[in-house]
Each structure stands twice: as C-alpha cells, then as structure tokens.
Amino acid sequence: MSGDKRRAWADTTPLLDQKHRSSISPIYNTNRISYAAGGLLEMAYATAPPARSRSVFLGVDVGTGSARAGLFDESGKLLGSASSPIQIWKEGDCIEQSSTDIWHAICAAVDSACSLANVDGEEVKGVGFAATCSLVAVDADGSPVSVSWNGDSRRNIIVWMDHRAVKQAEKINSRNSPVLQYCGGAVSPEMQPPKLLWVKENLQESWSMVFRWMDLSDWLSYRATGDDTRSLCTTVCKWTYLGHAHMQQMNEKGFRDMEACGWDDEFWEEIGLGDLIDGHHAKIGRSVAFPGHPLGSGLTPAAAKELGLVPGTPVGTSLIDAHAGGVGVMESVPESVSEAKENEEEAICHRMVLVCGTSTCHMAVSRNKLFIPGVWGPFWSAMVPKFWLTEGGQSATGALLDYIIENHVASRSLANRAASRHVSLFELLNGTLESMIHERNSPFVAALTEDIHVLPDFHGNRSPIADPKSKGIICGMTLDSSEKQLALLYLATVQGIAYGTRHIVEHCNAHGHKVREHIFHSVFYLSQSRTVRSFL
Q: Which residues does the UniProt record annotate as the domain Carbohydrate kinase FGGY C-terminal (predicted)?
C-alpha cells in the first residue's frame, strides 16, 4: 500500500490509532519496567532520553479494567506507555463504574507514561481518546449522577456489558422501527437506548437530574475540552444515529462539524424517550463530528493541569475502543500477493478484524450496505470513512477465559506456580497442553478435547443469534480437578470461542461479505502458544 493512499482515510481518525498501527501483537507482550503504588500501575516500553525538538502524540485507551496511555512520535513509534486500574462494581446483571475514578486513572497513566518516556507536556501536540461504549450520566455542572439502585453518585456509568435492560431491549424491538434495520434488526441491551429506558423506568430522580447522557469516549473528550460534540462512531454504533443521513446533510451543506441531523425523532418518541429530543437533542448530542475532528479550543486549562500538558493542545473526536483498534489494524497489515493486484479500498473489504479483550468485536467494511440479521450495522462511516461497517461480536471471551480459570479448583496452585516462576498463568497452561500432546500421542492439539466441549454464550449471544438470554454450557466434566484438566477446559473454551467466530464469519459471508482474511488484535496470551495459535 502506498503511504499517500493510507493517509487519505487514516487522517480522519484519532491519534490513538497510531498504537494499533505500530503493532498487531498482543498488548501483553510488553517489557514490564516497573510497578508503582503496590503494583497498581504498569509501565512499559522505556526509551533512551530523546532530544526535545520533537512532536509527540498522546493516545488514551480506557478498557473495561484499566486506563492506558501511550506516547508516540510522528512515525507512529511507541515511546512509552503506562496503565492504571479502574474500579468496577458488579451486582448481578448490573455493572457500573465511576467517571471520576476513570479520569483519575487516566491522569495517573499519562503522568507515568510521560515520565517513563522522558516526554515534557509541551512536546505533546495532540490527544486522542478511545473507550468502551459505556453510558455516562452527568448533571448540568458536569457532576456525576447515579445510575445505581443504591443511589451512590460515584457510580454514574452503566458499563457496556451491563445486561439490566434486557426487557427494555425487547420492548424497543417490538416496535419494529425502521431504525432497527441499521443495527442488525434489533437493539441489544448493550446499546444505549435500552439502558436509557431502564433508567427512566426505574430511577426517576436520576433521570430528572441528568443533563447529558454520553458515551464514555465522548465524555472523556468533553471532560478534556468542554466541547460536548459527540462522535459519529459512538452515536451510530450505540445510539441508533443514522450516519448516512448525517453524511447526506453534510454534503448538501458543506460542513464537517454540524448540528446533529441523523436522529430519528419518531423512534425516540415510539419507545417512550421523546423527552430526549428536547433542545435539539441536547441531552444525547446536538452536534456530531467525524472521528479525529478537532474539538473546541483543545485542552482546557483545568484538564491540561490535571494531565500535565499544555492548554490548547488539540484533542480529536473520539472512537469506541474496538473501532480504534479496528481501523488501525485494518490498514496496518502488509499487502498479500493477492491484494497487490487489487485496489487498496477493495482489499480492505475482504478483511475482518477481531479486536479481542473482555469481549471480541468482529469488524468488516463494505462499499455497499449489507443488512445482516443478528449482526450490528450497517453503520455508515462509523470506523473507516465512507465505508459501511458490519460489527459482529461475542459478549464474553477474555472475560469467559478468566471466569473458567479463576473458578477452577486448580487455579490457585497454578497461579502460585506462575508467580514463583515469574511467568503468566497462560504460559503454564499452554505449556501443559504442549506436553499433553506428546504424553497422549495426540495428532494435534484440538484432539485433546474430544471429550470436553464448551458453548461460550455465558453472557448471551451477541452475534449472529442475537439472544442476550442465551446461556453457556460445559459438556464432558468429570471429578478430575487437576491442572491438566484445567488446561483441557481452557483449550475447550478457546475452541468454543473460535467456533463462535467461525459462525459469525460464515453468517456474514452468506449475507454479502467476502471475508477471506482474519486479523486478530488481542490482549489474550493465546498467541504465545504455538499449539493454540495453530488451532486458531
């Protein structure tokens, strides 16, 4: 691919994409330099003290469990990174976080990354945010408003994977609004309209207090700049905003940052949330911009002080974390021999990017809109500008592996052994599987689990069945509680996740996609095992 062609569409994305552009290897493959605050802060990728005449760019990525900051030079080279954990409250289907806690974690991570990379605040020339598609509630002063049953004002975020709004999603889907065509035929309880309806029906006091409802990445850019413009990425993918309608108006009026014109007012009225239309949709977004578009006057003095940066530093419109990874990885892969014969824009339409973490998102783009039952989208310009995005997914993948391992009898002894050897628990499991191949004369790793199988829908099925009530199954369990049995259960879980991915790919291809290349961007340790990697 030519560099000029890449920039034609990559320049509209936030600076955070540089992280994904630099490498598609698992993010856990880091050089762990040091730990501060009792091991709560991880820092990686130290470099030698550099000259001061340079431009550095800051990417902030907020995942489900931590906030991460990365510093990059103009070529995309990672100069330093750090992470800081964030608090999470889980009570049944309700999963909540604190925007205040997340902001403090970001500030700590940025400070540590700058220190590690020997970067001064005035060297940072731009900032990009990406985050999970969690729902943030704040009042007119920007203070948090509780979304929790217990009224704790700290808990003002409904986390993306929260499933409290299953009934509200069913109610919305029963209306059969035309808008639903653009989210796979049905909204998920992981999207924002069902969550909003749940709050209105169950927490009236909080509902009346909220002045802004925002996706987390949009709230981060708002917290940094004071500009509450929403991202086309977040609004299209999680709020039923119609990006193609926005594009049509933009082309007609010649604006890049404009008053939101992609909201379907009839939809909001039909589902009982017509009050969100008031004030030109002020509570959910009266202005929507393309990812990467500069916001306001850059960092406010207050935010700059907290981050250790300079007031006025440009801040780009945000992306959802998976989508930032998707656009970065999709263009970072070298051309294959077959792709060399294709136009670049045609080549990316044959790729599917899997961004794997707590969950997995399966992203594919197309020139034409493809309506695929049970798969989110088509979303116009939500990831790659001027392309339609199809977004499949599995709601629990990394989270499922954690659950399976942590709840096994052998987990504690395995974790202790991993700690004593200064290796990861996953490395021990992968090593055990490799040894078992020889012990059992198995022809290949997948054959080890011929008697144990896992249906991975422990947190529902996002795609392509689109059933949040779906349940997981483990078949083939015995009274064996050894580490070897845990390794087999781990492998069977990986296989179940892989089968789920195959189901999504085949379903998408059956409905118009032509995916022939799958690109993983993962936080799993799976790639460290040759046997597991060969299976995947």
A: 353-516
Complete DSSP assignment for 447-467: GGGTT-EEE--BTBB-SSS-B
Closest Cα partner for 326 from 291, 359, 361, 358?
361
Give me Rg for the CA atoms of the chain: 23
Give the C-alpha distances (Å, rounded to integers) separating 128 from 107, 319, 328, 468, 475: 14, 9, 13, 32, 45
| Whole-number Å distance between alpha carbons of 258 and 270 | 26
Residue 316 is classified by DSSP as: B
Nearest C-alpha neighbor of 381 from the set 327, 342, 336, 417: 327
For residue 499, how many C-alpha atoms fall within 13 Å in the half-sphere facing its CB? 13
Alpha carbon of 69 to those of 130, 191, 327: distances in Å?
10, 26, 18
Q: Which residues contact 509 (CB under 8 A, 6 or more apart)?
A: 515
What pLDDT, on the 0 to 100 scale, is given for residue 254?
Answer: 59
Q: Which domains does the chain have, with CATH numbers?
A: 56-326 (3.30.420.40), 398-534 (1.20.58.2240)
User: Does residue 409 contact residue 478 with C-beta atoms inside 8 Å?
Assistant: no
Give pLDDT tens digits for 302-323: 999 999 999 999 999 999 999 9
